[in-house]
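User: I'm putting together notes for a lab meeting next week and I want to include a structural view of one of the chains we've been expressing. I don't have a solved structure, so I'd like a prediction I can at least talk through. The sequence is below, exactly as it appears in our construct file.
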Amino acid sequence: MTTVRLPTEIEQKLEDISKEKHKTKSEIIKEALERLFYSEESQRNSYELGREFFGKYGSGKGDLSVTYKEKIKDKINAKRCTH
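Assistant: Thanks for the context. Below is the predicted structure for the 83-residue chain, given as structure tokens.
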């Protein structure tokens, strides 16, 4: 549970909106926080959004981008040797 002290003018605006929309002040505050959280998440860049997935399904071989040509040659040679 969290308690927040609001300045009088914000408290009055919250009260007005609450009456106008027939919602509790808590509901109004929760909706406002959800919009804030959504806005904050959408402002993160692509790297931050995908960070938890990077490397998750990797091969564990960190040299593939450097040794790919050698690996392709080995595969081709292996096919030739079996025929």
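A couple of points you could mention at the meeting. Residues 64-82 form the longest helix (19 residues). The chain has a mean pLDDT of 87.

User: Perfect, that's what I needed.
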